[in-house]
Design the sequence.
């Protein structure tokens, strides 16, 4: 069935182009860099358009998160090379094609200028800025045509870069990174992103290198001091337990009622000591400082809260006390990480996540404290940042977010849309065909959107490049 579809599509293109131009496509040697969202669509389009001599390079392996939009891959392929699996899948559309797959980094020395010189055109399907710049420079050095492509959510663009005819990929400076006023982050957040930025600063403050430039440096808490407090409390607790044991042995001769009363008193004393130790734990000290004391300080500054609700300090004792009256934890009832990531958890759950992730980092990542850096793909780090951000949102009456949404904000991720990838990949092939068979200069950039509009579900526009 796939072969029949391929034959039909190729026959139609042959009728449109004519035999000479079609032979040009079939004999053209094409390099595809990237076998991800756009790359999968691109490889499929190429073999269905008559291209038969293709090489593809990708250093990545297939992840579960790729399967919703990278249609050449299946669950059984998880952990395997993207480029090699893509090759096998695409050959099912047209087995007569010659496709060579490389599992490697485009920056590897073997993919040098001499390697690039053997291709007629290079098609970029990368999401890494450094790699895109590298390919751009190699194409300029070898005077090879490059078709750049990229998507961001519902929007995409395709940019042909022809040596001597158009601006290169690095001619236009990248857009400046979005920044936020310190006072907004510190005192008056009104968007989830403000709270996520604050949470990342808190992570760096607690576990990262010392940084006097951190806007929250005045909120620093000494982990060593907290540990000393805990060690002192633990020592006192052990001493109390020893004394209680001696007292119990001493009163063994007292009647049963007196012994029972004494035992109850000892249990109560031990419980009080344990609770005192727990209250001075580092994670609870941090919670009170970040989510109670700091908020009270903001309220004392006399800001005008007439246009919005004032922040409300969190009382950790009250939150934990109320847990006995609440329904079972949402996070505990969700069976998978994917389910938890897509749910907005309760205030109590966010509090428990903060306490547990802070404690886990202290005990499981002790060697990283003072050196840790934010990594959106580190589960423990992301759990901590999500909990801190959501607690901050609750304080300022900002709707709390799912962990999935916070990861996207924290990692500056614009989640891929399969339809946009498909449109962009189609435009790449159109540009490649135009370059290979047309005598007219190819110097226009195309943009596309898959966002629904009142008149259509997709739009494409072209404009001249500088």
Sequence:
């Amino acid at each position: 069935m796939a072969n029949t579809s391929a034959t039909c599509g190729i026959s139609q293109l042959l009728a449109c182009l004519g035999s000479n131009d079609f032979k040009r496509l079939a004999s053209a040697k094409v390099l595809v860099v990237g076998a991800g969202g756009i790359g999968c669509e691109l490889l499929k389009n190429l073999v269905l358009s008559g291209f038969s001599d293709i090489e593809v390079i990708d250093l990545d392996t297939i992840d579960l998160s790729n399967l919703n939009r990278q249609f050449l891959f299946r669950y059984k392929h998880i952990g395997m090379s993207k480029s090699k699996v893509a090759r096998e899948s695409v050959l099912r559309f047209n087995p007569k094609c010659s496709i060579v797959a490389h599992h490697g980094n485009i920056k590897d020395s073997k993919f040098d200028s001499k390697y690039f010189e053997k291709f007629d055109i290079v098609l970029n399907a990368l999401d890494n800025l450094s790699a895109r710049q590298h390919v751009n420079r190699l194409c300029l050095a070898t005077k090879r045509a490059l078709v750049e492509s990229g998507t961001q959510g519902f929007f995409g663009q395709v940019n042909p870069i022809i040596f001597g005819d158009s601006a290169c990929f690095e001619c236009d400076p990248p857009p400046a990174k979005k920044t936020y006023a310190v006072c907004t982050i510190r005192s008056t957040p009104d968007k989830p992103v403000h709270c996520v930025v604050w949470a990342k600063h808190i992570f760096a403050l607690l576990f990262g290198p010392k940084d006097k430039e951190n806007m929250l440096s005045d909120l620093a808490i000494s982990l060593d001091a907290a540990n000393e407090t805990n060690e002192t409390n633990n020592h006192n607790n052990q001493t109390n337990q020893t004394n209680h044991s001696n007292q119990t042995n001493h009163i063994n001769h007292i009647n049963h009622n007196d012994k029972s009363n004494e035992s109850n008193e000892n249990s109560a004393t031990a419980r009080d000591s344990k609770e005192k130790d727990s209250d001075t734990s580092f994670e609870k000290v941090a919670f009170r400082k970040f989510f109670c004391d700091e908020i009270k300080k903001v309220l004392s500054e006399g800001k005008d809260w007439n246009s919005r609700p004032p922040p409300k300090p969190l009382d950790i004792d009250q939150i934990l006390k109320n847990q006995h009256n609440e329904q079972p934890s949402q996070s505990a009832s969700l069976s998978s990480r994917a389910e938890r990531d897509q749910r907005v958890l309760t205030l109590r759950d966010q509090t428990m996540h903060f306490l547990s992730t802070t404690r886990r980092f202290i005990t499981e990542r002790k060697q990283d404290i003072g050196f840790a850096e934010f990594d959106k793909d580190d589960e423990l780090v992301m759990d901590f940042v999500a909990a801190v951000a959501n607690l901050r949102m609750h304080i300022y009456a900002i709707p709390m977010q799912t962990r999935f949404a916070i990861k996207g904000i924290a990692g500056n991720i614009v989640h891929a849309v399969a339809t946009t990838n498909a449109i962009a990949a189609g435009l790449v092939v159109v540009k490649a065909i135009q370059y290979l068979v047309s005598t007219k200069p190819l110097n226009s950039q195309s943009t596309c959107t898959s966002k629904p509009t009142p008149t259509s579900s997709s739009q494409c526009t072209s404009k001249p490049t500088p």
Summary: Confidence is low (pLDDT under 50) at residues 228-237, 239-277. The first strand starts at residue 29 and ends at 33. The chain is about 50% helix and 10% strand.
